[in-house]
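Can't paste images in this forum, so I'm doing it all in text. The chain is below; anyone willing to post the predicted structure tokens underneath?
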Amino acid sequence: MSENRDRTTKEPLFHISKRVSLPMWLLWTIRIASVAAALIVCAVVIVLFTGDNPISIYKTMIEGAIGTERRVWGLVQSTAMLLCVSLAVTPAFKMKFWNIGAEGQVLIGGFATAACMILLGNKLPPALLMVVIIVVSIAASAIWAVIPAIFKAIWNTNETLFTLMMNYIAIQLISYYVYKWSVPAGSGKIGVINSGTEAGWFPELFGQKYLLNIIIVAVLTVFIYIYLKYSKHGYEISVVGESENTAKYIGINVKKVIIRTMLLSGAICGIAGVLLVSGTDHTITRDTAANRGFTAIMVSWLAKFNPFYMILTSLLLVFLQKGAIEISTVFGLNDSFSDIITGIIIFFIIGSEFFLNYKIKFRKSHKEVADK
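Text version of the structure:
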């Protein structure tokens, strides 16, 4: 008895162990509970710092995201763009290649699109121009993405730092050409490209200028899901992500998989660049990617690399962003406060993942040990 008691007193108060699995209903119960808890905490913060009615603020958030038909289309379009970049980083992340360079890869794709529109807009027929835009933009982003992949595969460089530094190079490259192509000269802004001819612009479908973008991203979502889950390449990505030594043992060419996967990630970032420049903004700036490359990391991780779950995750994050902007406008709050509200909600959502993956076991009392 005394031995058991001594052994018990030396045990920690609690320890954390990994869960094997949870039923689907419990997974979603925990996630919904985390959002509810976040809204309660946000309500307390709102009352303490502003004195405003939390219900009114939440109502404004909803109206800001889906209050009108135009806002609904804007919400879906922004969700599609974030989802597209998330799809791009997912194959690399599943392979445990930490591609932090999606921001730069999207910018390079958008830059190639803008360059084709500016330099070839009045020289090629519309159909041929669009083909050139798509091919050049995808190729440019793929090349930009494969550079760190080659260095990783051959010399085992740190891909996190390499891809991150490539972002800064891309931003400065775009900044230089935005100034060079600025209209009027020296203004530092390109403005809307080919506003008179609309050369290189995506056509409207059924009167909706964002619909083609959404359809393309929807097709990409299905493609990436099938590619990762059912293709041989997807299987090789999973094995390399689990263990490079195991992959080598069973005959997988790890270097080839790394390079091929980053070519795919870069190509999808190139598509995102085309959609943003040709399909949405019709111009290029250093902020065209709008931090989607970094937000996509969170989307992919929260969805556990499942493209269909990424739809919901992207929608939630964009909804919060749109709602936060409306809160700032209606209540006269600065952007920082709306970012605080968004940050609290995201913090709780991310925190809920801990309880989905791990469980806490508390130390048993002396009485429980004695009863045994």
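Residues 83-310 form one domain. The first strand starts at residue 14 and ends at 18.
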